Amino acid sequence: MTRVGVVTFPGSLDDRDAQRAVRFAGGTPVALWHGDHDLQGVDAVVLPGGFSYGDYLRCGAIASHSPIMREVVTAAERGVPVLGICNGFQMLTEAHLLPGGLIRNDHGSFICRDQVLRVENASTAWTNGYAAGQEITVPLKNGEGGYIASTETLERLEGEGLVAFRYVGVNPNGSLNDIAGVTNERGNVVGLMPHPEHAVEPGFGPDTAAAMRSGVDGLTIFTSALHSLLAA
Amino acid sequence: MPKIVVDVMPKAELLDPQGKAVAGALARLGNEHFSAVRVGKRFELTVDGPVDEAVLSSVREIADELLSNSVIEDVVNITVVDEAGEHSAAAASGALA
Q1: Does some domain include residue B49?
Q2: Would you tell me how many other CB atoms lie within 10 Å of the CB of residue B36?
Q3: Is position B96 within any domain?
Q4: B71 and A65 in contact by Cβ < 8 A?
Q5: Across the interface, do A105 and B69 touch by the CB < 8 Å criterion?
Q6: Cβ-based interface (< 8 Å): residues of B facing A
Q7: How far is CA B59 from CA B3, B31, B43, B54, B69, in A?
Q8: pLDDT tier at B94 (50, 70, 90 boundaries)?
């Protein structure tokens, strides 16, 4: 059984939800601790959402210097799939595993909504179960989700197909080029602000045309990782 | 104890929603003299011992690696404040781009 580690930091909120999403996808979740240097031999790593260290200094900044992050960086460089969701995405940018950064939403307010995304790159470890161009709906909830990068970096991201997800319909936080998530060149490290782990079980996901709260579009992120590991 | 003060600002070309909100509040309070506000951070590092070149060089590194994120922020100033409270901006040179 594929083992997917989910790191808990002081202030993580969605670690249990991410573990649950891994279980729904058919993997075995492994709880990892920020203060350890041990990834316990997991096959993939999820950095969950929340407010590590109370968003002190910068969102994800202190967590990105925690002991386990040194192991996560080494594993990512080896090609181990790493997913950062929301605060986890902020950590990945702070750790320089992904380009760009996240700043306060342009309108200044925290936002919580079911958000439509377009899967722009369907060949990463975390998106291979989607079709390129497919639109999915997952919850979004953040105060500092505005994706920014230098003009050169944006051009490189667009030119090399490193934009993984883009906001559709509404740009909820002022992200440049409507970017909701990005991948590294190798496709094993992906970060996004929206929360796929909150759209994995009928009855608890976003509303769909078929039924209330029936949306499970986020599950494919987790099954994608399991498939890419089995194929490897 | 001497202190080293590090000032960090959001990059000039980026939107600063916090500053924008403060500017909005100023305007609502009837202040008409200000066209913009930007909000940054000030760090005060109390030094255990004298401030020498080794300490300054580690502060420059800390400022770049932890206190700021060069993608979204700039270290705009590093100043040594001695026990009498007198400032010396000489420390800044190495850290400024």
Answers
A1: yes
A2: 10
A3: no
A4: no
A5: no
A6: 10, 14-15, 17-18, 20-21, 66-67, 69, 71-73
A7: 11, 38, 11, 9, 15
A8: very low
Measured between CA atoms, the residue of chain A closest to residue B42 is A57
- Contact by Cβ (8 Å): A118, A218: no
* Amino acid B82: pLDDT: 81
Res B8: pLDDT: 98
Average pLDDT, whole number, for chain A?
97
pLDDT single digits (tens) B31-76: 989 999 999 999 999 999 999 999 999 999 999 999 999 999 999 9
Structural element, H or E, at residue A159: helix A151-159
Q: Is residue B12 part of a domain?
A: yes
What is the total count of domains within chain B?
1
pLDDT digits 0-9 by tens, A169-216: 999 999 999 999 999 999 999 999 999 999 999 999 999 999 999 999
Copy the structure tokens of residue A49: 């959402």
Query: What is this model's ipTM?
Result: 0.86
Nearest residue on chain B to A98, alpha-carbon basis: B71
> Residue B49: which domain range?
3-81
CATH number of the domain residue B35 falls in: 3.30.1280.10
Q: Which two tokens stand for residue A86?
A: 């929301």
Give the residue from A66, A69, A90, A103 with the most B CB atoms within 10 Å of its CB, the best one to mutate.
A103
Q: Do A101 and B69 touch (CB under 8 A)?
A: yes
Residue B18 forms part of a structural domain: yes
